[in-house]
Give the backbone structure.
Amino acid sequence: MAVKQDTPSPDGRSVRWEAHRIERRSALIKAARRAVHTLGAQASMEEIAAASGTSKSVYYRYFGDKSGLQQAMGEVVIKQMQDKILAAGRSADSPRSGLRAMVSAYLQMAQTSPNVYAFVTGSAGEAPGTSEPGVAVALSDFFANISAMMDHAVQAYLEGHGTRSLTQAAAAFWPSAALGMVRAAGERWLAAPAQDRPSEAEMTDQLTAWLFDGIGWDSPGRQARETSSSTTAPGSSGISSAAPNADQ
């Protein structure tokens, strides 16, 4: 007869301590986020702790060092940005309006606190690629998930417009190019003096037009080019010539 092995029940004190630790860690991240928002992305651990009403040793106990805090805050902030951007894209009724909604959500989230955005993405004047490894992984997942959604929408759009297979294959690179452009332009926009930059809505419209219509979207000859492209034989057009009618 087999002897029944009783699974040891978890120690109540350790369970309560772990729950307390998770709650305390979350509270410290929120406090640090408020501190960075006020003090700036270059705030030291001592400054963050003082603004949070605690000691530097507490932050070191929970996060190890400043890079650990950056990673923990980055995971929270980047996840919130991703959720909002993907939700914006899902609610749209066309590829163009979806892209516009996603660009707008990205700029709004970044504009809410440029200091926090710079702190968690490593864009506060550091050289490219110097983000902490954990933050880099979170950003990589963030852009991969958004890129996958954009790729699905672009391929569906191209298939519906009778584009060539070569154009469809090349368009697989478009989401990565689009994301790079939006991020680079968005970060430069955030860094510009408020009086010298477009509003969030204006920047969103500008980026959406550039991505769909090209740099000459508002040039005098645009109407003539659109008229000419409308007479092009089926199957010979690419995304740039079809894009102005993306909402149809």
Notes: Residues 126-130, 225-248 have pLDDT under 50 and may be disordered.
